[in-house]
Design goal:
heterodimer, A: alpha/beta, Rossmann fold, 9-stranded mixed β-sheet, two-stranded antiparallel sheet, 6 helices, B: alpha/beta, 2 domains, 8 helices, about 25% helix, binds flavin-adenine dinucleotide, electron transport (chain B)
C-alpha cells in the first residue's frame, strides 16, 4: 500500500517570531525554518508502517515555493521514497491546500494519507479534515495510535477528557498528534544522500485549483503580555500575597 | 440573517462551552439556533432551549448519532445549513474534528479559535502558539468559525426556545466508533476549574506527580494540569496537558510547579488571573509570566505549602 504524507515548511518551533513594524504581517525573513513538528510524526508513522511490511511506498508532498525543498530533503533523509513539491507562490490557506492535495491524491491514489493535526504557524488544524471531506473519505484526526489490518485502519484519537477509538475503511485520512510516535533523528549521511535524490515539481497552476485567498489578513499585532510580577522568599510570604486577593484562598 | 451553533454534549449534559458560543453569537444581533445531535438527548435539547438568547433548538435524534462521527455531524450540518449566515461552535476537539469538514463541503473558509469578533466578517485569532494576534476578514458569504470559550462570558439561563426535530442524512458507514476512555476524576474539570495546579517533568515519576501534587490540589479544590514533557514521560495522562496542543485553561489561580514556561505551555494558561510559579531555576521563563514567583525546590515547598493551607 502507498502512503502520502503532507509536510509543511514552518518557522522552527523554538523561535519567537516578530511582527513587521507596520503590522502588516509576521516577519519571517531569515528566520530558521523546518518541517512542521506534527508532520514529522506523520512521516515517522508512515515509515514505521513501511518497515513493518504494511506499506510499500511513502511519498512526501509539500506545497509552497522552491524553498520547501529543504523539508522534502529532510523527508527523504528520514526515509521517504519520493518527494513532490507543488509550487505555488500564493500564501495558501487550508482549503486551497486541501484542494491541491486532493488533486495529488487523484494522481497518486494512495491508500492512506497522513497529515499533521495542525501547523504550528497558523494553528488552524483544518487541512486534514477538509481533505477528507473533499475526497469523501473517513477521517481519524488527532491520532495517537494507528493500526492497519486488511483494508481497515483503527485509530485512537486524543479528545477532550480522554481518547476515542474508531475504525476507518481505507482509503482514509489521518492527522497525527505528537504522541503518535517519536520521530527518528536524521543522520548526516542520509541527509547527504537525500541531496542527490530527485524532487518532482508540479506547478500548482497546472492542477486547475482556485487558490484565491478567502481570508484577508488585515493586520497582525503583539498580544498583551503578562508582565512579570514579584519574587517572594518563602511559602509564608506567598500565602499572604495570595490571601490579599479577595476570594482566592481562605 | 440567522446563526446556527453546533452544540457539544454527552447525551445527558450540555457542555458549558455552548453558553459561551451563544454569547459570541449575540454579536450578530440575529436569531440564534442551536443544533443538538445525539441519541435520545432530549434533556440536552431542553437545556439548550433554556439558554437566554436561543430562539430555536434543532434536535436531531438517531441511533448513529450516539457517538457522533465527524462525517455524520458534518453531513447533518450541511443538510440544514441553508439559510444560515453564520455557523459556529466552541473550540473543542469535537468541533475541531467536524467543522473543517463542513467548511470544505460548503466550499468556504473556516476561522479557528476566534478570540474576538470585530465586525460581521472580521475576527481576531492568534497564531504561532499565541505569540502573534491576527485580524482577519472572511470574504465568504457564510461565516464558519470556532470561538475560544474563555474569551466569551457564558450566556445565562432564562430562555424558552422552541424545539424542532429534523431529518437526518444516512450514516456515513465508512467509519465506525469502537470505544472510548474518559478519565474519571473527583477533581473539577480542568477546562473550567477555578484553581489549577500544574506539574512539569521535574516531578520525576508518575508516583511523585501524584504524591506531591494531589494533596495540594485536594486542599485547594483544584484541577491537576501537566506539561507535555510530563505527559510524554508518562507522569500524567495526556488529557490534562495544558498548552497549545492541550487544554486551554482560564482559572482564577494557576500554580505552575517545576514548569519551565515554554511558549507552547504558557499559551494554554495565559488567561489565568493569577499565576504562581515555583521553580528552582531563577532564570526559568515561567517567572516572566508569573505574578508571584518562588525560587525553590518543589519537593521542599509543596508539602510546606500544602500543610499551611487550611
Ligand atoms: C485568515 C488567514 C489569513 C492568512 N493570510 C496569510 C497571509 O497573508 N500570508 C501568509 O503567509 N499566510 C497566510 N495564511 C496562512 C495559510 O493559510 C497557511 O499557511 C496554510 O493555509 C496552511 O494552514 P495551516 O498551516 O494553518 O494548516 P493546518 O490545517 O494547521 O495544517 C495541518 C496539516 O496540513 C498539512 N499542510 C498544511 N499546509 C501545507 C503545505 N503548504 N504543504 C504541505 N502540507 C501542508 C500539514 O500536514 C499540516 O500539519 C493565512 C491564514 C489564515 C487562516
Ligand atoms: C509542536 C509542539 C507543541 C507543544 N505543545 C505543548 C503543550 O501543549 N503543552 C506543553 O506544556 N508543552 C508543549 N510542548 C513542549 C514544550 O515546548 C516544552 O518542552 C514543555 O512545556 C516543557 O515541559 P516542562 O516544563 O515540564 O519540562 P522542562 O523543560 O524539562 O522543565 C522543567 C523545569 O522544572 C524545573 N525544576 C527541575 N527540578 C525542580 C525542582 N526540584 N524544584 C523546582 N523546579 C524544578 C527546571 O528548572 C525546569 O525549569 C510542545 C512542543 C512542541 C514542539
Amino acid at each position: 500500500m502507498k502512503i502520502l504524507v503532507a509536510v509543511k515548511r514552518v518557522v522552527d518551533y523554538n523561535i519567537k517570531v516578530r511582527i513587521k513594524a507596520d503590522g502588516s504581517d509576521v516577519d519571517i525573513e531569515g528566520v530558521k525554518m523546518g518541517i512542521n513538528p506534527f508532520d514529522e510524526n506523520a512521516l515517522e508513522e508512515a515509515l514505521r508502517l513501511k518497515e513493518k511490511g504494511i506499506a510499500t511506498e511513502v511519498v512526501a508532498v509539500s506545497l509552497g515555493t522552491s524553498a520547501n525543498q529543504d523539508v522534502l530533503r529532510h523527508s527523504l533523509a528520514m526515509g521517504a521514497d519520493r518527494a513532490i513539491l507543488i509550487e505555488a507562490s500564493a500564501d495558501l490557506q487550508p482549503l486551497a491546500v486541501a484542494k491541491l492535495l486532493k488533486s495529488i491524491v487523484a494522481r497518486e491514489e494512495p491508500n492512506l494519507i497522513i497529515l499533521g493535526k495542525q501547523a504550528i504557524d497558523d494553528d488552524a488544524g483544518q487541512t486534514g479534515q477538509m481533505l477528507a471531506a473533499l475526497l469523501d473519505y473517513p477521517q481519524g484526526t488527532f491520532a495517537s495510535t494507528l493500526q492497519i489490518e486488511g483494508d481497515e485502519v483503527t485509530v485512537t484519537r486524543e479528545v477532550d477528557g480522554g481518547t476515542e477509538t474508531l475504525a476507518l475503511a481505507l482509503p482514509a485520512v489521518i492527522t497525527a498528534d505528537l504522541r503518535l510516535n517519536e520521530p527518528r533523528f536524521v543522520k548526516l549521511p542520509n541527509l547527504m544522500m537525500a541531496r542527490k535524490k530527485p524532487i518532482e515539481t508540479i506547478n500548482a497552476a497546472e492542477l486547475g485549483v482556485n487558490l484565491d485567498a478567502r481570508l484577508k489578513l488585515i493586520q497582525v499585532s503583539e498580544p498583551a503580555v503578562r508582565k512579570a510580577g514579584i519574587k517572594v522568599d518563602s511559602v509564608e510570604e506567598l500565602l499572604s500575597k495570595l490571601r490579599s486577593h479577595e476570594g482566592i484562598l481562605v | 440573517m440567522k446563526i446556527l451553533i453546533l452544540a457539544e454534549h454527552d447525551d445527558l449534559q450540555l457542555s458549558p462551552s455552548v453558553h459561551q458560543a451563544v454569547t459570541a453569537a449575540q454579536f450578530w444581533n440575529s436569531p440564534v439556533h442551536v443544533l443538538v445531535a445525539g441519541n435520545h438527548a432530549d434533556a440536552v435539547a431542553q437545556q439548550a432551549a433554556s439558554i437566554d438568547g436561543v430562539e430555536r433548538v434543532v434536535h436531531a435524534n438517531a441511533d448513529h448519532l450516539a457517538h457522533p462521527l465527524a462525517e455524520d455531524i458534518a453531513s447533518l450540518l450541511v443538510s440544514i445549513s441553508e439559510g444560515y449566515d453564520v455557523i459556529l461552535a466552541a473550540h473543542s476537539s469535537f468541533s475541531k474534528n467536524a467543522l473543517p469538514r463542513v467548511a470544505a463541503m460548503l466550499d468556504i473558509a473556516m476561522i479557528s479559535d476566534v478570540l474576538e469578533i470585530k465586525a460581521d466578517n472580521t475576527y481576531v485569532r492568534s497564531i504561532y502558539a499565541g505569540n502573534v494576534l491576527t485580524t482577519i476578514q472572511s470574504t465568504d458569504a457564510v461565516q464558519l468559525l470556532t470561538v475560544h470559550g474563555s474569551n466569551f462570558a457564558a450566556a445565562s439561563l432564562g430562555g424558552n426556545a422552541e424545539i424542532v426535530n429534523t431529518e437526518i442524512p444516512a450514516s456515513f458507514k465508512k467509519a465506525s466508533w469502537k470505544s472510548e476512555v474518559r478519565s474519571q476524576s473527583d477533581r473539577p474539570a480542568l477546562g473550567s476549574a477555578k484553581i489549577v495546579v500544574s506539574g512539569g517533568r521535574s516531578l520525576g515519576s508518575a508516583e511523585k506527580f501524584e504524591q506531591v501534587l494531589s494533596p495540594l490540589a485536594y486542599k485547594l479544590g483544584a484541577a491537576l494540569g501537566a506539561t507535555r514533557a510530563a505527559v510524554d514521560a508518562g507522569y500524567a495522562p495526556n488529557d490534562i496537558q495544558v498548552g497549545q496542543t492541550g487544554v486551554v485553561v482560564a482559572p482564577e489561580l494557576y500554580i505552575a510547579v517545576g514548569v519551565s514556561g515554554a511558549i507552547q505551555h504558557t499559551y494554554g494558561m495565559r488567561d489565568s488571573k493569577i499565576v504562581v510559579a515555583i521553580n528552582q531555576d531563577p532564570d526559568a521563563p515561567i517567572f516572566q509570566v508569573a505574578d508571584y514567583g518562588l525560587v525553590a525546590d518543589l519537593f521542599d515547598v509543596i508539602p510546606e505549602l500544602t500543610a499551611a493551607i487550611q
